[in-house]
Amino acid sequence: MSHCTRRPNDNTKEAAHADALTTVKSQEPHYKRLELALLLAVISLGVSCRLIQVSQPFIDAYSWRQADVALIAENFYLHGFNIFYPQINWAGNWPGYVGTEFPLVPFFASLLYLVYGVQDWIGRSVSVFFFVLSVPFFHLLVRKVFNQRSAWFAAGIYTLAPLSVFAGRSFMPDMAYLAFSIAALYLFTHWLEEEKSFFRFFVACAATTLAILVKLPAIIIGLPMLYVAWAKYGAMLLRRQRLWAFAVCSLLFPLIWYSHAYWVSLSHFPHHMFGSGALETVSLDWYVNIVQQALTSVATPVTSAAMLLGICLPAQAKFGRLFHWWLVAILLFIIVAGQGHRHPWYLLPFVPVAAALAGYACDFALSRIARPARWKTLFLGLIFFSSMSYFSFVYLKPLYEPVAVAPWRAGNELNRMAPLEILIAAGDGGDPTCIYYSKRKGWHFLENFGAAPIDSEQAIAELERLKQRGAAYLVLTRHQPWWWSERYDNFWSYLDSHYARARDAEDYVIFDLGNTEPANWPVVSVPPSKLTAPFQPG
Fold first, then answer.
1. Residue 134 Cα distances to 62, 141, 311, angstroms
2. From CA 234, how far away is CA 79, in angstroms rounded?
3. Residue 428 in contact with residue 196, Cβ under 8 Å?
4. Which of 33, 310, 356, 489 could in theory staple to 360 by disulfide, Cβ–Cβ 3.0 to 4.6 A?
5. What number of CA atoms fall less than 13 Å from residue 352's CA on the CB side?
6. Does position 532 have pLDDT exceeding 50, yes or no?
């Protein structure tokens, strides 16, 4: 008897296997349509959340950072679109060139100003756009690292996370750099699957370059990229010329840009480099507070609990520890840039990491149920996302509160009453909201002395110095409450005995310093027809 003789049921098994493959292939278009529909539904939900109060002025919890970006965008629009020299308005009678990250976000907004005029909702909408861009890449990345069901859970968590929602509607570069970071990680893993593809190499380099250009902290994605390269090549990665080419091409333009930005900050008053001072360690209590913030208000306790489970689960895919290494990079960055993490948006990269690991944990929990019925999956998903949505609402609600109403109102009043060419001094503690809405140039009053002057004599001396440089109005708001303390009674007595109160409102005072001479450079004010309608804070 021949050894090659098949048993009777062999042909049956092969036929059944072939039928199964045929069935799977025939269902692929259906699954792709379903995947696209679900992805659009998630994006639509995310956009809806982020368009809430989209026309709100920049008076919320992130007011000062948004006002600075808005100043740069408006100056592009008013004074020419020179993207290499971003300008602010708090340099007094200097042009106000500053060193910043590559100003892609304000430049993008300034181009839209050509169509719609200067509107606050435009800047917010730019961030919404980058959120939309990030979701498909995030879904694809999680699906590659884990699986399809994990990707759906992760996309939903990422969409509803409090910091993702609020940063995704704030006029700042953070959502843009996160979108490029996620895209860069996915495209890098995609390129390594076909390393000889020049197109895949190019788009991966472009995404990585843009991520680092838009915000330097994006450079931390280098660690998970190194892990992916190690997972594929091991120690031989050091001999892969294409990997070295990728590193050089991705870092070249950021190196050139940040060298230029630093030179600008050294060469032009106010000699300011955005992000300077962030790379400082802080006390242990501060680090503990950062971690607590990340586990609660950034990602919600529900997501954090699931993430901690996801960290402990075995990694089955080839690149299964990608998000673990991204988390390690984030923790290292928190250590070296503890001072920078006084701003909550520095924790934004924690959101996709927590979402991916939590999504993996949710998939694992469902897999423990033997062949779960669809209604069980939907029920458990509903419980999870309902809990998360509740916590998101709790943490988000205070962020929308209008905390910078006084400088916003004072700025609008100055825009109505003051000549176009005058300079102002704003006692705003460094928050440019008043200066931005005044549409005038000027100074942060006493910015060189920290939050408040030592005494009245110091405040008087600084006021007279700025008056000599051309300041025509001084504005003080209750947004900076120290001005109303008894400590500065002599300062108030001096103001009232030397200068008239041009406006005396409940939450701000504007003093006329008597300077009627125009500033020595043209200042262009935005026509009232181009400004957004007054916002009534709730």
1. 22, 11, 23
2. 52
3. no
4. 310
5. 30
6. no
